[in-house]
């Protein structure tokens, strides 16, 4: 396949999906990983897409405004998510009652949990399974299972949350700004996140640098309602009205 043909296919896929991973492109183009990465670098340099770790997005802020399937999100920014997740897990202490929001970075946190005698409440089926595999006492919210993000949402979930008082909560987000706070594309997920964050004595939002200074459709919490754990602050002059925990790569 000629280079121009690959470029056209990559850009068409991005136009249709908004985001795509290197793994997907290797299969789609029947090309090597090094070829795909070179193509993405060239298209990035030409200003036709935004290259991110593990894939690419459109050159707009539209990616913050859409939910993408879990298998797509898992393959993006993986190294950064691991750094963030590992640090977040270190904040969990013995005997705590934890809320764990749905999301790929919060899911990555599970493998690093070392605290004993904790109870974790989650609205994610995948999270619940992984927690049980670690012999962690796990409670899962009731409600409607959302296909794209595999999160449990709806009024039943919100009613269940009202019974808890969490020591700490760990949340995902699609965007973070001072003005709009923490944002997500779906109103039902936003409502669950909003109630859960209110029930936490201390809340942390886990997000890689691509989420900073981005805005999605629905605000689920004000910027001061949680601390941000991120891998790098992409604009060092940007001052946030909350504590930013910047995780350094070891």
TrEMBL record:
Span of domain HTH deoR-type: 3-58
Highest rank taxon of the organism: Bacteria
Coiled-coil spans in chain: none
SUPFAM superfamilies: NagB/RpiA/CoA transferase-like, Winged helix' DNA-binding domain
One of the record's GO molecular function terms: DNA-binding transcription factor activity
Keywords attached to this entry: DNA-binding, Transcription, Transcription regulation
Record-given protein name: DeoR/GlpR transcriptional regulator
């Amino acid at each position: 396949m000629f280079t121009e043909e690959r470029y056209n296919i990559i850009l068409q896929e991005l136009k249709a999906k908004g985001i795509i991973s290197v793994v997907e492109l290797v299969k789609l183009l029947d090309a090597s990983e090094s070829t795909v990465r070179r193509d993405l670098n060239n298209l990035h340099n030409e200003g036709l897409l935004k290259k991110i770790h593990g894939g690419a997005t459109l050159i707009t802020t539209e990616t913050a405004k859409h939910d993408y399937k879990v298998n797509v999100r898992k393959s993006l920014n993986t190294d950064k998510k691991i750094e963030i997740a590992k640090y977040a897990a270190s904040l969990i202490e013995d005997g705590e009652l934890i809320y764990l929001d749905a999301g790929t970075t919060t899911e990555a946190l599970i493998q690093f949990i070392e605290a004993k005698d904790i109870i974790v409440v989650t609205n994610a089926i995948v999270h619940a399974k992984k927690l049980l595999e670690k012999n962690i006492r796990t409670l899962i919210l009731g409600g409607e299972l959302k296909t794209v993000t595999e999160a449990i949402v709806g009024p039943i979930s919100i009613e269940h949350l009202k019974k808890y008082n969490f020591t700490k909560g760990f949340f995902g987000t699609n965007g973070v700004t001072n003005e709009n706070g923490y944002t997500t594309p779906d109103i039902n997920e936003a409502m669950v996140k909003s109630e859960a964050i209110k029930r936490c004595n201390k809340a942390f939002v886990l997000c890689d640098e691509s989420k900073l200074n981005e805005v999605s459709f629905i605000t689920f919490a004000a910027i001061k309602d949680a601390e941000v754990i991120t891998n790098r602050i992409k604009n060092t002059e940007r001052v946030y009205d909350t504590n930013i925990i910047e995780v350094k790569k070891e």
